[in-house]
Design brief:
Shape: globular
Largest sheet: 5 strands, parallel
Number of strands: 22
Strand content: 15-25%
InterPro entries: FAD-dep_OxRdtase_2_FAD-bd, FAD/NAD-bd_sf, Fum_R/Succ_DH_flav-like_C_sf, Fum_Rdtase/Succ_DH_flav-like_C, SdhA/FrdA/AprA, Succ_DH/fumarate_Rdtase_cat_sf
Keywords: Flavoprotein, Oxidoreductase
Helix content: 25-40%
EC number: 1.3.5.1
Protein name: Succinate dehydrogenase flavoprotein subunit
CATH topology of one domain: FAD/NAD(P)-binding domain
Mean pLDDT: 90
Low-confidence stretches: 429-433
Radius of gyration: 23 Å
Cofactor: FAD
Structural class: alpha+beta
Number of helices: 16
Length: 584
């Protein structure tokens, strides 16, 4: 197997990973980037609809700045965040991120007088060029920067395992180039996990197909701690049909060029959510939308799978045509964005939880392993904040990198074992493998069948209405799938090159680990908070649960601990309150 040496290997080609690689290069180190998809073309970063103005810049006021901190701490993080991290990120966005983006050619939409077009809301944001397209343009710039710097990029390569030396330190990884069908290993002084969110735990997700939780699964198996994995975001105003339009979003957020947002209506035509009325201080009021929809579902006036509608019909038509990208999608369905409602349904969105780490250095509980962006457990969803993580982790590594690689004979054994495991997932497709299955009375299963089976389990066990009983039932079903179905996975082809079923088999192993640890973590949190609603614990409990819910795996067993967040400038203001009555 080919072995590559570098100073730092970055896993993930989104906002956090690309910026981490660029900053490492600027700091005189030799980074390498590995992306499961195409760098800057997959994952969550391309889905970013806007970039937030988290300060008094661009005509903002002190109140705008205060509203930004309140939004991130309350509506986006539900007080499960280190607020000093938020303040540091906001300062960086104002003084570094925005100036750099404009200097690199990220051209924000402007009004007729030349001023940058902003939302007319307490928390302000800008778009380039239209709401829903900013991430695409930003990531195109990042890709060109990486190419100009000559940073090695290994695209369409999936990392299969982290390597650890005799001291337990992460010192590299193994990966499969699934286009060429070749495995390779990397020896590095540090590994940065920047794989983004684990959205693909259910059938409908706002992320691309690559987001099957690989970073969480790899870190979990390497002994790292996880934090708040149960804290999952959802969209409720994505197009219900056609089902392939999973991320096409009718923004409930304040719209650029106006103080309006979309409205959401139940099956009886009653408006049950409007941002300017129900959550004026929230930039992206996804959690409150979830609460209001859940109440409609419980009242029999909507379904999570549809039967309710969203619309921009009350918004100035000229503003919609100027700043909203969704108009053409309405037209393809024979609808008019300026007057028609479209049926909506829920879609799994970003996750707040992830790999436990220090938010001021990005260091994890395992030496040699660092994180950046959505795979960490710092804050949910903001592309600018994820990019801040990338710069911070680069600076932290540069200040503490060991003088030499830390691999040893133990890592060579791991490389051989991992090559054998990965090859085994492909070779089951040969005649001997099928004969062995037949003799054992076991019918082979396509890896995609197993993946969709895991999604179906999570749709039931980890939907928007949860209980201890349904989550324990989900864990039992996952355990049965691990025992009976994972061993039967058989790709229909034994081809080495671009064998996507081989990739699906790797995904299924990662998914089942991520889903299991997520349900284990969810069972431990005995309250409801954000989009996490348990019928058996239907209250927000700030006395016991305004803390990190930390889990790690030792073999087949899980261990848990809690850790309080530092006191911040903004506090919940109550100890315990009924879930639906909490306005965030």
């Amino acid at each position: 197997m080919r072995v590559i040496d570098c100073d730092v290997v970055v896993v993930g080609g989104g906002g956090a990973g690309t910026y981490a690689a660029l900053r490492l290069h600027d700091l005189g180190l030799k980074p390498m980037l590995i992306s499961k998809g195409l760098v800057g073309k997959s994952g969550a970063s391309i889905m970013a609809g806007a970039v937030i103005v988290g300060s008094k810049m661009l005509g903002g006021t002190a109140q705008n700045a205060a509203s930004s901190l309140e939004f991130f701490a309350k509506y986006y993080s539900h007080f499960l965040v280190d607020q000093s991290y938020l303040a540091a990120a906001g300062h960086w966005i104002e003084n570094t991120f925005y100036p750099e983006m404009e200097s690199l050619g990220l051209l924000f939409s402007r009004e007729a007088d030349g001023q940058i077009a902003m939302s007319h809301s307490p928390v302000r944001w800008a778009v380039a060029p239209m709401q829903g397209q900013t991430g695409i343009l930003l990531m195109d710039i990042r890709r060109k920067q990486l190419q100009a710097c000559g940073i090695p990029m290994h695209e369409e390569c999936v990392v299969t395992a982290l390597l650890r030396n005799e001291n337990g330190e992460v010192c590299g990884l193994t990966a499969l180039d699934y286009v060429r069908g070749e495995m390779f290993a990397v020896h590095a002084k540090a590994v940065v996990m920047a794989t983004g969110h684990a959205d693909r735990m259910v059938r409908r997700s706002t992320g691309t197909r690559e987001q099957t939780g690989d970073g969480i699964a790899l870190a979990l198996r390497a002994g790292a701690e996880m934090t708040n994995l149960e804290m999952q975001f959802w969209h409720i105003s994505d197009f219900a049909h056609p089902p392939t339009w999973q991320r096409l979003h009718i923004y409930p957020n304040p719209l650029v060029g106006t103080d309006q947002s979309s409205r959401v209506y139940n099956a009886q035509g009653e408006c049950f959510f409007e941002q300017s009325r129900d959550a004026p201080a929230a930039l992206a009021p996804y959690t409150l939308q979830v609460k209001r929809l859940t109440q409609q579902v419980l009242a029999g006036k909507a379904r999570f799978s549809g039967g309710y509608y969203t619309s921009y019909s009350h918004v100035d038509a000229a503003v919609l045509r100027r700043y909203q990208y969704a108009g053409s999608a309405f037209e393809k369905l024979g609808l008019d964005i300026t007057r028609d409602k479209v049926e909506a349904r829920t879609t799994m969105h970003y996750r707040q939880g992830g790999i436990e780490s220090d938010p001021h250095s990005m260091r994890t509980s395992v030496d040699g392993l660092w994180v950046a962006g959505g795979v960490g457990a710092h804050v949910t969803g903001s592309l600018a904040v994820a990019i801040y993580d990338g710069g911070l982790v680069a600076e932290s590594i540069a200040g503490s990198l060991p003088d030499r690689h830390r691999h040893d004979g133990m890592t060579e054994q791991q490389i051989r074992a991992e090559a054998s495991r990965v090859e085994g997932l492909r070779h089951r497709a040969d005649a001997g493998g099928r004969a062995a299955d037949s003799e054992a009375g076991r019918q082979p299963l396509a890896p995609m069948h197993v993946k969709t089976g895991i999604w179906d389990v999570m749709d039931e066990a980890y939907g928007l209405i949860k209980s201890g009983d349904t989550m324990r039932a989900g864990l039992a079903r996952l355990a049965a799938m691990r025992e009976r179905e994972l061993p039967r996975m058989t790709p229909p082809s034994a081809s080495r090159r671009f064998n996507t079923a081989w990739l699906d088999a790797l995904d299924a192993h990662n998914l089942i680990d991520v889903c299991e640890v997520t349900l284990q973590s969810a069972l431990k949190r005995e309250e409801s908070r954000g989009s996490f609603y348990r019928t058996d614990f239907p209250y927000v409990d700030n006395t016991a649960w305004q803390c990190k819910n930390i889990v790690a795996r030792d073999g087949d067993a899980y261990r848990f601990r809690r850790e309080r967040y530092p006191e911040g400038a903004i506090a919940p203001g109550f100890e315990r309150q009924e879930y639906f009555s909490v306005p965030w």
